[in-house]
Amino acid sequence: MSQSAPPNPKLPDDSLPPVEPPSARFILQLFLVPGLIVIIIVMVWMMFSWLATKGQNPRETIAKLKVPNAARWQHAMELANVIRGGNHSQFKRDPRAAQELAQILEDEVETGSSDEKSVLLRVFLSRALGEFYVEEGLDELLYTAQSDRSRDVRLAAIEAVAVRIENAGDSWRKMRLNDPGFISALLKLSEDSQPTVRSRAAMAMGAAGTAPLIERLEEMADDTYPDARYNAATALARHGNTAAMPVLVEMLDPTEMAGLTIEQDKSESAQEEKRILILVNAIRATRLLAERNPQADLTPLVQATGELAEADVQQQIRAMARDAHLSLQNRPATAP
């Protein structure tokens, strides 16, 4: 059977993560898709992908991945898609399956091929590994995040680590978040020379939330790359840390242009969509900060949300800003 041409392996540049309370699915909402036509195309593609993978046995797919051929990237994509649903919880707790995938990923990273299909294979292997609830595979994801030659693969691996942290049970989470090597790896990623890597690292650090990572996030709130400091601020807001406030004020300014540069698409419509995304996430982060730190003096955010509620932006954004503004105004007065 002939294979279809691989899709463009480039991942959308650094969109911002949602700021709702921790959820294993928050990473999956990262991607900014410019334009209604593209959204329709993606939905149709996902429908056919779902039909193709419905009823698929993940263990059989792993067996296919062990056989070198041109279709391996497609098998990895199918596996990542099929286990993302809620029908394979037992499989996602299978340490042997996770270790087998991790070994395939590690071997591919060592090969270091820049061929388009090889890059796609590593991207989808990383995404599939991110869905597991077990210890196995995490070290390989961290290795991939730090060592792969492809930026897209590194970003996918960091996202997978963040999802792993969100999915982790209490015992696993306690063990890993007290592991100096694990914390050190995240800190190293947060200092990477590639700004998009730093930005994605902020998401994983926010999911982990240990003291050394929070301290580093406070430093990242001054990062010169807009999306890195925006992600750091939304991560800090999840933990009620007021170091997020100056950046949230910046994000709430509808005239702020710093975060609107999009490498893959600099069209006016794409920039407008990203502006909306920044504003929405800033409003959500503001409300979350207020919820997580009820005693904080959030006067700058009261003013910023009030100004946004009257700004020349979409009606839905104004309504969200107005609700946030009223919520902040109605908070109990902070103690002197």
β-strand number: 0
What is the beta-strand fraction? under 5%
Could you list the spans in which at least 5 consecutive residues all have pLDDT below 50? 8-54
Distance between the termini: 72 Å
Q: What is the chain-wise order of helices and strands?
A: HHHHHHHHHHHHHHHH
Tally of contiguous helical segments? 16
| Share of helical residues | 55-70%
Radius of gyration: 20 Å
User: In one word, what is the shape?
Assistant: elongated
- Coarse structural class: mainly alpha
Main sheet specs: none
Mean pLDDT: 84
Walkthrough of the structure:
- The chain is mainly α and 336 residues long.
- 62% of the residues lie in helices and 0% in strands.
- The chain has helices spanning 36-53, 58-65, 72-83, 95-111, 116-129, 138-147, 151-167, 170-177, 180-190, 195-208, 211-220, 226-238, 245-251, 268-292, 299-309, 315-329.
- The longest helix is centred in the last third of the chain and has 25 residues, at 268-292.
- The radius of gyration is 20 Å and the shape is elongated.
- The termini are far apart.
- 40% of the residues are buried.
Question: Summed up, what is this model?
Answer:
The protein has helices spanning 36-53, 58-65, 72-83, 95-111, 116-129, 138-147, 151-167, 170-177, 180-190, 195-208, 211-220, 226-238, 245-251, 268-292, 299-309, 315-329. The protein is an all-alpha fold.
